[in-house]
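Work Package 4 report. The design task specified in the project plan requires that, given a folded chain encoded as structure tokens, an amino acid be chosen for each position. We show below one input record used in the internal validation round.
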């Protein structure tokens, strides 16, 4: 099975001195996701938590909505011509009777590790109706102080990043700031899928009392994944995209960007952030 990290020779230049040494790199390998035996998508990912990744991807596609929808997930034996198992192909079997949206059967998607939406025919195709509308969830309130503390706690939990410097991370926190789960991957969207997939496998969806923190920017795809999992608050250490802000405003998602130290921008859903009245003026 593929490893999370690999070693490669590197020529290191430091202050004019040149040396050769091995370096630790994050592994990146393709994962083909099959749905009920039919090829569906290929994503570039860091090996590990592959079943959770596949399950989370199908949550964002609107295929899986609860633990009972999932019958099983297996690695496909004989994935190569010689019949060996590369552990790079998984087959997700849904429970008989689960309705499969047409969108998942009409396309074969290749997604890079940086863009979970590559191959989508149009923006409308990914505006899937959420099973758990965020606007209808019980009220969640977080303070700026609580949010400001989350990036350091995420960084402290990134074990593989310390060795490679080349991984994105996503973390789930409770509304009280308790760390629930952390996943790392070469792709932002994969890290989130692994979190959501694990929650589905554990029967924890919807994540209606959770805060999702991502280590990079907040793209439309990540906002969509949060909405599909019923997550009311999405925070990112970097910038959101305009479409992410639009989607957050449409769905009631609280979207926080540039979360660095005590500074942050709240782009949508500010009612869930306990801001001082004076700060909200202007």
């Amino acid at each position: 099975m593929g490893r999370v990290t690999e070693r490669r020779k590197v020529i290191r230049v430091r202050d004019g001195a040149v040396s050769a040494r091995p370096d630790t790199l994050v592994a990146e390998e393709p994962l083909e996701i099959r749905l009920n035996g039919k090829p569906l998508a290929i994503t570039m990912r860091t090996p590990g938590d592959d079943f959770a990744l596949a399950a989370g991807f199908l949550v964002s596609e609107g295929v899986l909505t609860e633990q009972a929808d999932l019958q099983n997930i297996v690695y496909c034996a004989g994935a190569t011509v010689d019949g060996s198992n590369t552990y790079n192909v998984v087959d997700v079997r849904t429970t008989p009777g689960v309705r499969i949206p047409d969108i998942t059967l009409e396309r074969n998607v290749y997604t890079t590790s940086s863009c979970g939406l590559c191959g989508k025919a149009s923006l409308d195709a990914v505006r899937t109706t959420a099973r758990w509308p965020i606007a209808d969830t019980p009220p969640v309130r977080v303070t700026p102080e609580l949010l400001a503390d989350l990036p350091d706690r995420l960084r402290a939990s990134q074990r593989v990043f310390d060795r490679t410097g080349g991984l994105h991370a996503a973390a789930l926190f409770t509304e009280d700031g308790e760390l629930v789960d952390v996943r790392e991957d070469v792709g932002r969207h994969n890290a989130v899928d692994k979190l959501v997939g694990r929650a589905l496998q554990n029967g924890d969806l919807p994540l209606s009392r959770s805060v999702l923190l991502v280590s990079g920017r907040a793209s439309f795809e990540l906002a969509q994944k949060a909405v599909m999992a019923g997550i009311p608050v999405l925070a990112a250490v970097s910038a959101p995209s305009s479409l992410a802000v639009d989607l957050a405003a449409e769905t009631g998602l609280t979207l926080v960007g540039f979360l660095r130290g005590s500074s942050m921008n709240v782009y949508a859903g500010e009612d869930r952030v306990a801001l001082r009245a004076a700060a909200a003026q202007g």
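The chain has a mean pLDDT of 83. Validation will be extended to a larger panel in the next phase.
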